[in-house]
Design brief:
Elements (H helix, E strand, L loop, with lengths): L1 E2 H8 L4 H9 L3 E3 L2 E2 L6 E2 L6 E3 L2 E2 L7 E6 L3 E2 L8 E2 L14 E2 L8 E7 L2 H8 L7 E7 L5 H9 L2 E2 L2 E2 L4 E4 L4 E6 L6 H7 L5 E9 L2 E2 L9 E3 L2 H8 L1
The structure holds uracil (URA).
Length: 232
């Protein structure tokens, strides 16, 4: 059991004072009854709590998918740049959200934002083998040396990369599947073949593909089913 104002505060942006005012205005219901005091004890597992006509869902963690546009950095705050958290709806701002993994400032596509540290660790750990798939465009012709090199493990300054898949899809385009996420990894891997990456988009994590209807800059919660696809 916990205090009603604390419980509401953990799921919304309302302060204790806001909640007190809402209670005064008879805008808070517990199990269908108007609440008279904001410090009564509630059980968030069992009690039905409605604020301003909206039922609170009491989620321990949230899992958001973002279609990251260019120009945003994968951080929670930054002195000079906009961060991916600037694209998250106000209603999640009270949570300690962070991006699970990084995409470069000029990379677009699927990014997961959550407050569940263990989940983030699991999907990023190379030991868990959760693959990340990218569409890539380079400045020179794709070639079979690159395909073989990626498969055998490209040597970077910080050590040999795990075997990766490069599938050529056009003269300058391909799909890359990685199971690790090192700093500027794809750019550095192509750099070993004298190529510069000009466009990079993450399209898939695990078995979950960036939905076609999630426009650039848009963010929404995962469903349970979609989260399972990420983990698999
Ligand atoms: N590899 C890169 O070089 N950049 C990214 O943003 C992701 C993978």
């Amino acid at each position: 059991m916990e205090r009603l104002d604390k419980a509401i505060g953990s799921q919304t942006n309302y302060s204790r004072k806001d909640i007190k005012d809402l209670v005064k205005k008879k805008q808070v219901l517990v199990n269908g009854e108007i609440v008279l005091k904001s410090d009564i004890k509630v059980d968030v597992e069992k009690d039905n709590i409605v604020v301003l006509g909206e039922e609170l869902a009491f989620k321990k963690y949230v899992y958001l998918m973002l279609n990251k546009p260019k120009g945003y950095v994968s951080a929670t705050e930054d002195k000079s740049d906009k961060t991916v958290l600037d694209l998250v709806s106000e209603k999640y701002r009270h949570r300690n959200l962070f991006p699970a993994g990084r995409l470069d400032k000029d990379t677009t596509g699927l990014m997961i934002i959550t407050d569940d540290g263990e989940f983030a660790h699991n999907i990023l750990s190379p030991k868990k083998h959760i693959s990340k798939t990218y569409n890539v465009t380079i400045d020179i012709d794709m070639n079979e040396d690159m395909v073989l090199g990626f498969r055998n493990g490209v040597n970077l300054l910080d050590g040999e990369c795990k075997s990766a898949v490069l599938e050529i899809t056009g003269k300058h385009t391909g799909t890359v599947i990685l199971t690790e996420g090192r700093y500027h990894q794809i750019k550095r891997m192509f750099g070993c073949f004298g190529a510069k990456v000009v466009e990079l988009e993450r399209i898939k994590m695990g078995n979950f593909s960036l939905p076609n209807d999630l426009e650039l800059g848009m963010c929404r919660e995962f469903t349970e089913e979609e989260l399972k696809q990420v983990r698999s």
